[in-house]
Amino acid sequence: QAEAAAKISEDLGAGSQTPADPPRGKGKGPPPKLPGKGVAPPAKGAPPPGKGALPPPPGKGDVGKGGKPGKGPGAPGGKGPGKAPVLLPKSGAKAKTAAKATCAVKSNLAKKLGETPFGRKIHWVQPTYDEPNGDSIFGAIAPGPELFDEKLLRAMFSNNEQETRTVDGARKKATQRKPTGIIVLDATRAQNMAIVLSKLKVSSEELCSFLHELNFLDPRLNIDDLELLITVLPSTEESKKLLEYTNVKDQLRDVEQKVMPFCTLPRSISRLKLMRFALSHVSTFTNLIERSRILRQAAEQARGSQELRDLLSVVLRVGNFINHGVEEALEGTVKGFAIESLMSLASFKTGAVSTLHFLCLTMRAQDITFLNKLLLSLQHVHDASREKAALLSSAVEAFQKDVDFTRRENDQLEERTVGKDRMMALVAELDRESNELKQGLKEAFQRCEEAQKYFSISEKAARNLPPVETFFSHIANFLDALRASWNEIERNPKRWQQFATAAGSNQKVQRESMPACMRLASMSGDEADCSTCGD
Q: What integer pLDDT is reported at residue 521 of this predicted model?
């Protein structure tokens, strides 16, 4: 069978070859094409050409021995010389016979090899069925231990029963849906409501019961869930549509049944807002009163820090010496400066040495723990610098609005209403918290104003005070820069030893005049030699 298949393939390949055009014969060929026209019309008496008809065979004697033109008539159909037709591949009965023979061979081979056991095949890329070359990887594969386990393969890929059962189960699960019931709400609205209601730790009936009784103490209640619920509850129009089905509530869709209690509860949204505030007012009050306390304490610390006053005294003398070359506060020298001028000390440098380093060396010579004492005396300044006074005022006003809302809700309740006593106690507690917040914020702003005026250099500046967080940020930024310079000295004491020696050589002179090493900083950048500093 293999030899027969090879023979058929050889015959088909030979029949597909196209020989070269033979030279023209002496016979008469078909008439030439007319100029400007399409195909020449057929000769008289000749049948019309059909679709797919082959050209006439070459006349006998067209090609003689040695390739010379042979004798004999050419192809009939016209006068004059013409080209001999080209041989085409075999077709017709012979080709069909060859194709049938090939299919028969393949069928016999398939029967010999066997059917596909799993009903599907692996599609190889460019497979070869000849013996592999010995130099290739497949030719070098030697028979080794039997690693193929047919039983394992069949067990893994022919478990049709389990596969069918899994697929049928998935289809059954996908097709079996719970009856929807009567649909009232829009699909998108219903989906949003279902998502929020699914997050609640209590049922909608329980929650509405808590709202009716004004019971806000259940530990399962959550502020975030209530805020989301307020945004998705049915509107007035949607509630009217749902209330039409009150008598047939069981026939409604699941989500409509869950939101129905909120439609039957009077003032449900207002009571939800009331519950949310009742659950959150303690944490809100604690946060706001703490923010006010930080502002008040930061203002008191900035005004009362002895370490900050000592440091500003040195800064003032440094500035006058750098700008005027005098060590004492004489007429014409600076007597005070705005607090925002402190950061300019970091930009005045000679090489890597800035006036901040000088301040650190000077204060270290006096007290090695000076920086820690300074930061401790101003421990709330950084927090105050991150505060926004306007936002704090708005938050306290919003708290008061919630208190007023709670009082209005309480006034609408009758004396015998369930939960009236709890509402009265809540209103009393809220009034106390609101008064304490307003008083605490007032005192904080008053202390901040006093501190800003204390640091002001003129009456005009005292009348145009910046926001309190701006004032504290100037001090906080200066403290950060001073700490960075202090840490540079701590990390590499050998580098700064020459300056520390100069600063500590005569401590009494330091309090009266500046160390000689810092006189280099007053120069205009020219190189100088200082035997004291070793430069």
A: 35
Q: Which two tokens stand for residue 150?
A: 């047919």
Task: Give whole-number Cα distances, 428 to 13, 275, 400, 414, 425, in Å.
Answer: 106, 16, 13, 17, 5
Nearest to 336 by CA among 440, 458, 512: 458
Tell me what pLDDT residue 105 has: 57
214 sits in the region (left: phi over 0; alpha: psi -120 to 50; else beta) called left
Look up residue 444 and give its DSSP letter: H
Sequence-separated contacts (24+) of 71-75 with Cβ below 8 Å: 71/26, 72/25, 72/26, 72/27, 73/27, 73/28, 74/25, 74/26, 74/27, 74/28, 74/29, 75/27, 75/28, 75/29, 75/30
Q: Return the residue matching tokens 């609205």.
A: 189
Determine the pLDDT at residue 475.
95
> Does residue 525 carry a pLDDT above 50?
no
Tens of pLDDT along 97-143?
A: 666 666 665 556 555 555 666 666 666 665 666 666 555 555 555 55
The CA distances from residue 504 to 111, 363, 441, 514, 532, in Å, are 106, 10, 47, 11, 12
Rounded to the nearest angstrom, the gap between the alpha carbon of residue 299 and the centroid of all alpha carbons in its chain is: 41
On the question of pLDDT at 231 being above 60, the answer is: yes
Sequence length of the chain is 535
Phi–psi pair at 123, nearest 5 degrees: -95, 105
For 509, the token pair is 């002179």
Task: Specify which residues 110 forms β-bridges with.
Answer: none
**Residue 66 pLDDT class (50, 70, 90 cuts):** very low
Cβ partners under 8 Å of residue 400, min gap 6: 434, 437, 438
| Residue 63, φ and ψ in degrees, nearest 5 | -120, 125
Residue 439 exposure: Cα atoms within 13 Å on the Cβ side: 6
8 Å CB contact between 308 and 451: no
pLDDT at 73 (0 to 100): 47
196 vs 88, which has greater pLDDT? 196
- Alpha carbon distance 196, 427 (integer Å): 29
Which residue shows structure tokens 């009903």? Answer: 119
Residue 111: both structure tokens together: 């029967």
Distance CA 299, CA 292 (A): 11
Please tell me the distance from the alpha carbon of residue 409 to that of residue 481, in angstroms, as a whole number.
Answer: 54
CA–CA distance, 453 with 451 (Å, rounded to integer): 5
Place of tokens 């010995």: 134
∠ CA 235-240-242 to the nearest 5 degrees? 95
Residues 379-407 pLDDT 10s = 999 999 999 999 999 999 999 999 999 99
- pLDDT tens digits, one per residue of 469-494: 999 999 999 999 999 999 998 888 87
Residue with tokens 């000769």: 43
SS3 percent helix, strand, coil of the chain, rounded to 5, is 60, 0, 40
